[in-house]
């Protein structure tokens, strides 16, 4: 066993005791950039919530230093078994990992803690004698906290799987004195630093009582599987181990046979020797599972003695024979009744065009032997017993889906109401259409603003508008670097358009020259299943002002707005087109969009037709609408007014229109303007059709 200098022993002990001060005052720069493990930052948060943990950590370190010298020696071959439960927090994406993937990870976890991992052969000769069998065995629980049968896995649908933190622990938690909780998520939030990826984080044994409701390990799904070492590393923290670079050369991890390391190791730097205060002066032990290197292969004998002391003092009940029987981890005790399946499913899409098919995927769990009965309202077939059926929907509407899962132990069912949305092949919403958001709501015409992975979405605002008082905007200063934020227009019939053009007003500011945010507009003619790009701008080409807004909030003035256009000529026959606006955060300031026009040939407030011109004033208005017409010769015509949904709210035949200037005065009551927002006037004369936009406040 390595004997290190008294300096490391003394200063290492002091460094570990003062870990909280180190974390609060001098965050580890390498970790902030590479971000493989979030345990240190999480400990900092726990100290703020539970300041009593500071003293508990000191006591734990004191126990560890005593135990490694007197109580626990390598050679203790007592097998300690730990019951494990995996909580899969998912949005039916790749983070919803399979049971086999979990079992593969469990094998790797056990191999590494029993020194059975084949890659121990790659440990350098200077450290081969340090390898340790921890004599810890991790098994899937077979009895849940309610005494019911379980396969040690539960699946919880939640968008909190993205940018997760301790929030996911409120969704699912089993008694931490009986189970090792492992939460599997899509991604972990460490504060949104650009380019960072956190693989996992854990709590230490001394936190088991003061922070019991958050005790366990959080790990991203992409780091779970055969040969993956992230969970091996994080369970090491859960057992009581620090990073070997904790506090640098004069901090260490309080373990005698792990050479001090100045900072986290990345890659596989076999020649690194970042500290020279150990005797003998050894290379960095990059093979250690508690470092960040890509060539981790071992735990040491000193680390075993350390965790034996920590577990005996803080978690001994979890591997007691009574608890192993209570959780079904003893390999003998089982629940009085076998596992009843938990019914669950998802589909390859939830929105299709009429006369289209949907692939359903069975996501039922908790047992391997099941039979299924599906019921599809509005679908063909209406019922099915296949595991993953394909169903056709002929008519537009919203339809329920039911799945019943059954085995010899019981039955479970799930009903998802209005789960499948079938759109008509010809939209009832006809173009031309204009939207200025003056109604103060997106719901009037069924705009969709999906919640992004960090919960942020587009919203109506009065911070700035190209016309009127409202627009839609994204608070880009709160956005996550690299995230995409979208909103979708409802399906529209473009075949009725006057012009196959999309135009809109935009205001966007960069924070500096490195801001390269992107705005893309895509079009779908298959009810949202696939999209093609029709507009794209980024960086300075997207910016509508040359002023950088760094450290201040951009709220556009009238001069900060620009009109952008996109041709939709290739979609001239589309009878149900969906347009999606997608903005990607790459370090800029806020973005605003106003006056979206689809199928309108010009972006001015009114459009002349032949010898007839029309204009509206005041515009916007909250009562009286003055319609001014200029004609060269006497005429007649028909005036129609439509609301934002394309419904005609007013029609009037006008005869004997005099030459020159004339005016028609209406009130919003006369035109049946039930809600505030955008209305569209169409004046049809023998000379052609003139258009004007009316904003009702």
Structural notes for this entry:
This protein is an alpha+beta fold. The protein has 4 domains: about 5-325, Collagenase (Catalytic Domain), CATH 3.40.390.10; about 345-425, Sandwich (Immunoglobulin-like), CATH 2.60.40; about 435-600, Jelly Rolls; about 605-695, Sandwich (Immunoglobulin-like), CATH 2.60.40. Helices cover about 15% and strands about 30% of the residues. The strands form 7 sheets. Strands 1, 2, 3, 4, 5 and 6 form a 6-stranded mixed sheet that branches. Strands 16, 17, 18, 20, 23 and 25 form a 6-stranded antiparallel sheet that branches. A hairpin with a 7-residue loop joins β21 and β22. α5 (about 50-70) packs across α8. The longest helix is centred in the first third of the chain and has 20 residues, at about 50-70. The chain is elongated. The N and C termini lie far apart (about 80 Å). Residues about 1-35 and about 600-610 have low confidence and may be disordered.
């Amino acid at each position: 066993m390595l004997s290190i200098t008294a300096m490391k022993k003394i200063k290492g002990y002091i460094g570990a005791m003062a870990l909280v001060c180190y974390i609060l005052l001098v965050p580890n720069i390498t970790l902030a950039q590479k971000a493989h493990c979030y345990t240190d930052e999480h400990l900092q948060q726990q100290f703020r919530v539970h300041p009593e943990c500071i003293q508990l950590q000191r006591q734990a370190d004191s126990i560890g230093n005593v135990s490694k010298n007197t109580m626990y020696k390598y050679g203790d071959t007592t097998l300690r078994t730990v019951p494990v439960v995996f909580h899969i927090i998912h949005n039916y994406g790749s983070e919803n990992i399979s049971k086999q993937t979990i079992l593969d990870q469990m094998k790797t976890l056990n191999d590494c803690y029993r020194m059975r991992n084949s890659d121990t052969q790659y440990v350098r000769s200077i450290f081969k004698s340090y390898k340790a069998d921890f004599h810890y065995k991790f098994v899937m629980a077979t009895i849940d906290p309610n005494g019911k049968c379980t396969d040690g896995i539960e699946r919880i649908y939640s968008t909190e799987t993205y940018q997760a933190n301790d929030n996911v622990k409120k969704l699912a938690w089993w008694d931490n004195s009986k189970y090792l909780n492992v939460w599997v998520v899509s991604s972990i939030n460490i504060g949104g630093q650009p380019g960072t990826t956190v693989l996992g984080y854990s709590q230490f044994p001394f936190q088991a009582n003061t922070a019991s409701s958050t005790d366990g390990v959080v790990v991203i799904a992409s780091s779970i599987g055969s040969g993956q070492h992230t969970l091996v590393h994080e369970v090491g923290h859960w057992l009581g181990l620090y990073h070997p670079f904790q506090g640098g050369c004069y901090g260490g991890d309080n373990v005698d046979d792990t050479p001090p390391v100045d900072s986290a190791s990345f890659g596989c730097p076999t020649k690194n020797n970042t500290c020279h205060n150990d005797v003998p002066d050894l290379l960095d032990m990059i093979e250690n599972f508690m470092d960040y290197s890509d060539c981790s292969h071992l735990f040491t004998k000193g680390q075993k003695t350390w965790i034996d002391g920590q577990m005996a003092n803080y978690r001994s009940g979890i591997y007691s024979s009574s608890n192993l029987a209570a959780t079904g981890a003893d390999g003998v005790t089982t629940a009085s009744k076998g596992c009843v399946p938990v019914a669950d499913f998802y589909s390859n899409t939830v929105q299709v065009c009429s006369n289209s098919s949907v692939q359903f995927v069975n996501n039922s769990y908790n047992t391997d032997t099941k039979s299924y009965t599906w019921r599809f309202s509005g679908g063909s077939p209406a019922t099915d017993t296949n595991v993953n059926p394909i169903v056709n929907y002929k008519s537009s509407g919203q339809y329920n889906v039911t799945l019943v899962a059954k085995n010899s132990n019981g039955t479970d069912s799930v009903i998802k109401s209005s789960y499948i949305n079938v759109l008509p092949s010809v939209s009832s919403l006809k173009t031309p259409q204009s939207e200025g958001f003056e109604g103060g709501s997106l719901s009037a015409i069924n705009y969709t603003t999906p919640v992004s992975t960090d919960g942020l979405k587009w919203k109506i605002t009065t911070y700035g508008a190209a016309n009127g008082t409202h627009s839609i905007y994204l608070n880009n200063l709160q956005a996550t670097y690299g995230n995409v934020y979208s909103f979708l227009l409802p399906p529209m019939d473009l075949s009725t358009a006057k012009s196959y053009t999309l135009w809109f007003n935009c205001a966007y500011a960069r924070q500096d020259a490195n801001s390269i945010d992107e705005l893309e507009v895509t079009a779908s003619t298959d009810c949202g299943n696939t999209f093609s790009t029709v507009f794209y701008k980024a960086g300075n080409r997207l910016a509508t002002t040359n002023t950088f807004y760094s450290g201040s909030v951009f709220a556009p003035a009238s001069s900060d707005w620009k009109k952008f256009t996109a041709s939709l000529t290739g979609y001239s026959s589309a009878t149900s087109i969906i347009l999606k606006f997608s903005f990607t955060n790459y370090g800029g300031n806020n973005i605003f969009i106003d006056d979206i026009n689809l199928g309108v040939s010009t972006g001015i407030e009114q459009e002349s037709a032949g010898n007839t011109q029309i204009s509206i004033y005041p515009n916007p208005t909250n009562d009286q609408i003055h319609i001014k017409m200029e004609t060269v010769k006497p005429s007649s015509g028909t005036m129609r007014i439509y609301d934002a949904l394309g419904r005609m709210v007013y029609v009037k035949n006008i005869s004997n229109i005099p030459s020159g200037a004339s005016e028609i005065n209406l009130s919003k009551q006369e035109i049946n303007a039930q809600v505030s927002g955008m209305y569209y006037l169409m004046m049809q004369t023998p000379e052609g059709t003139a258009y004007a936009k009316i904003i009702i406040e």
